Amino acid sequence: MNQKHHIVFFTGAGISQESGIETFRDTNGLWHNNKIEDIASKEGFEKKPQKVLDFYNERRIKVEKVQPNLAHELIASLEDRYKVSVITQNVDDLHERAGSSNVLHLHGELNKCRSSKDASFIYPCTKPIQVGDLAEDASQLRPHIVWFGEEVTEIEKAIEITQTADLFIIIGTSMVVQPAGSLLLSVPVDAQTVYIDTNPDVEEGINLLVLKEKATDGMKQLVEDYLPY
Ligand code: APR
Q1: What is the pTM of this model?
Q2: For residue 149, is it left (φ>0), alpha (ψ between -120 and 50) or beta?
């Protein structure tokens, strides 16, 4: 049976960096200019809601102004030859805008907002959220983002997808944030893993190929040199 190879991409902020979106932990990254506990935590939101809303409002506006880059586009283009799943830690919609049709967001989505009381009340977010903007349950609207200390509700689904990978491609993530950072442990032993990162902090090993490259160059190399036709 001509079973299509299943390629699973696991991406982080590094894949959007060449589109002009800053990462978190590189020099001048988001977490160098903002304190995580003030900006990306429920406590921070309760203490200074408008400050937190403004942080995400600014990022949402910025993402709307940029375009997917060649790395996002090459991933999307593989769908005509392979079964492709994208598991991303990113909250931007650049994978979707590049044409990927199977994207799982582990840490939420900038272009959605939700009730701060009942997480099942989720809405498209096309304009800045202000204090006083309410959900249908009359609670304050908040970004549909997984903040530090909150449950990563999609992790089980991500593990299931990873367990069926023939090829697992990690692009542009420091893998320091858990549980996302441990997805690598769910890759089948006989699957090949490729890690594309400008500053890969891992040793190459059996079934682990490290490409110390920008996402666009690493994806070009992967498609040209490593993917069976
Ligand atoms: N191409 C490839 N890799 C890059 C590029 C690039 N152009 N630029 C940066 N990188 C790499 C860095 O070397 C680093 O390994 O991308 C990674 C970015 O790491 P982080 O800034 O830690 O971002 P990420 O791993 O996505 O963070 C995970 O942390 O704060 C939380 O919720 C947030 O989803 C985020 C999570």
Answers
A1: 0.96
A2: left
